[in-house]
Design goal:
The chain is globular. It has seven helices and ten strands. It is of the alpha/beta class.
Length: 228
């Protein structure tokens, strides 16, 4: 599903955000990317959906070499990768239904197919009864679940989340992470960049730790901080 080989990412002449990163993620895995601020987590995440390109090295996602991908191929590739952000990125004046359907409208999915897909994905995240509410009327946790629904509505095999619980209280954060776990149980590969120690420790999934742009730990059933 994901293959990074000797990946370097530099900004300008001297700032190296990633340095010699190797990473392999199999289909169906749930992986936490952890590390302090500035470790390179967000840069790594942005490489996975081709928001950034590596300075050198290879990034392959869903069988595609992202450096060799033509610009016209990028929108089609991104339909295979759902992305969830810390700040939700919803249209606040639009309804929950409209926010999720928008991802289909812009890719010219038929109205009939939209009417089929949107209720199904809202059911998955537990928000079918909120479909006609405006996004701004929802709680933070509900807004993040809308964002997850929007990321999943194309049925992507890979879901990437960059600090998805960063703006949420612990109880709400746990509810959101449980949605991600459910999505993973249904077969979607999930990669989450997170500072949420309690959540990482509770789930005991694979943990990849970055420090100064390098992978310093890759542990199955890991904790946020490595056990001595």
């Amino acid at each position: 599903m994901i293959e990074l080989a000797n990946v370097h990412k530099r900004y300008g002449r001297y700032e190296e955000a990633l340095s010699g990163v190797d990473l392999h993620v199999d289909p169906g895995e749930f992986v936490f990317i952890v590390g302090p601020s500035g470790a390179g987590k967000t840069t790594l995440i942005r490489l996975l959906y081709r928001e950034e390109l590596p300075t050198s090295g290879t990034v392959r996602v869903a069988g595609k070499d992202l450096s060799r991908m033509r610009p016209r191929e990028v929108p089609y590739f991104r339909r295979q990768v759902g992305v969830v952000f810390q700040d939700f990125k919803l249209l606040p004046e639009r309804t929950v239904w409209d926010n999720v359907a928008f991802a289909l409208v812009v890719t010219e999915v038929s109205p009939k197919e939209i009417r089929r897909r949107v209720p199904a994905v809202l059911e998955l995240v537990g928000l079918r009864d909120r479909a006609r509410m405006k996004a701004q009327e929802l709680s933070g946790g509900e807004q993040q679940r809308v964002a997850i629904a929007r990321a999943l509505v194309h049925g992507p095999p890979l879901l990437i989340a960059d600090e998805p619980t960063g703006n949420l209280d612990p109880t709400t954060a746990w509810e959101v992470v449980q949605v991600l776990v459910d999505v993973n149980h249904r077969g979607t590969t999930v990669v989450v960049a997170s500072h949420a120690k309690a959540l990482v420790d509770a789930l005991r999934r694979r943990v990849v730790e970055l420090a100064a742009g390098r992978v310093v730990r890759d542990e199955v059933r890991g904790l946020y901080v490595h056990e001595a």
